[in-house]
Amino acid sequence: MIVDSPLDLSVLSPEAFQSMCFRLVQREYPRAILVNFASWDRGRDIVSLETETGDFVFQCKTMRRTDFSKLKHRVLESLRALDHQSAIACWTLCLSNDPTTPFIDWLRKTLKEFPFIADWRIWGRSELLRRLDANLDIVQSTFFPTWMALRERFQLDDVELVELAIETGTGWKPQHDETLSFYQVSGANSDLVLAITLRNRGTISALVSRARIEMFDPRRRLRGLPGEGLLWPQVTYALSLKNGNPDQSPIRLTPPLEIHAGKHACFNIRLFETGYAWTGSVRIHLLFGSGRELALPWMSLTA
């Protein structure tokens, strides 16, 4: 259970924490939109236009456990930046740590000064971990590179994932440092090349013969007109994303990848036909022998 884990949300950068919260909010409020990370966001990091009685507004704050005095000042600045002429049905404060009782009392008293806010709540660390527990794709794409305890989730019998990274020089870049969130920086349909290292911990060779793509929660999004897509040479194995609607049946890898006992195997997977103007969670399954699969961690992709 992630709720019982030592996962520290405060290690995330403010931008990465806001992005993680947005993906969690979007699972409950599909119409939610992310406000660009900046000092002029008018006190709104995430907004959902849900009801006629007002908006649902989310404010995200990363903090250390002892920073509640500084947090009060930051929260008050965000509240004062809100448009007092626009009704807010519910204002939610997302925190990387759980709030203390004195802070909750202070916030309850402070919010009385903002009558245009009809209701409020706090999503502290415990609440965010509870929501992450139901959305493991967000956990894996956000924390896999830094939370090494997750490695056990990507181990099958004697074969385990050692490293997963994006190849530089393509049309894709990491959205945040130390995460598995990638975005297409220019053009459309750019190839996404993944560098993968597996280790065979067993005593006999293992053969990776097939792979398949799994996609979760794909969403089309508005973007400008695409220009020329960046094309790059093919690497070892190529899988098609089919413009954000991949065929999830297994694809034969030719030649199959042999991982010798006690050795590592490094290879690339090139995702082509990535398309344009969509976002979603994607992961790759590597198939071994008779019916065994090694599921790689979820990645968050924005084309």
Ordered list of secondary-structure elements with their pairings:
Elements: H1 14-28, E1 33-34, E2 46-51, E3 54-61, H2 68-81, E4 88-95, H3 101-111, E5 120-123, H4 125-133, H5 136-143, E6 155-156, E7 159-166, E8 172-174, E9 181-184, E10 192-200, E11 206-220, E12 237-240, E13 251-259, E14 264-272, E15 278-288, E16 292-295, E17 299-302
Parallel strand pairs: 3-4, 4-5, 9-17, 12-14
Antiparallel strand pairs: 1-2, 2-3, 6-7, 7-10, 8-9, 10-14, 11-13, 11-15, 15-16, 15-17
* Proportion of residues in β-strands: 35-45%
Q: N-to-C SSE series?
A: HEEEHEHEHHEEEEEEEEEEEE
The largest pleated sheet is described as:
7 strands, mixed
Alpha-beta content class: alpha+beta
Ends apart, CA distance between termini = 32 Å
Can I get a quick summary?
The chain is of the alpha+beta class. The chain has five helices and 17 strands.
Fold and architecture overview:
The chain is of the alpha+beta class. The chain has two domains: 2-133, Trna Endonuclease, Chain: A, domain 1 (3-Layer(aba) Sandwich); 140-302, Immunoglobulins (Immunoglobulin-like). It contains five helices and 17 strands. The strands form three sheets. Strands 8, 9, 11, 13, 15, 16 and 17 form a seven-stranded mixed sheet that branches. Strand 3 (54-61), helix 2 and strand 4 (88-95) form a beta-alpha-beta unit. The longest helix is centred in the first third of the chain and has 15 residues, at 14-28. The two termini are 32 Å apart. Residues 224-235 have low confidence and may be disordered.
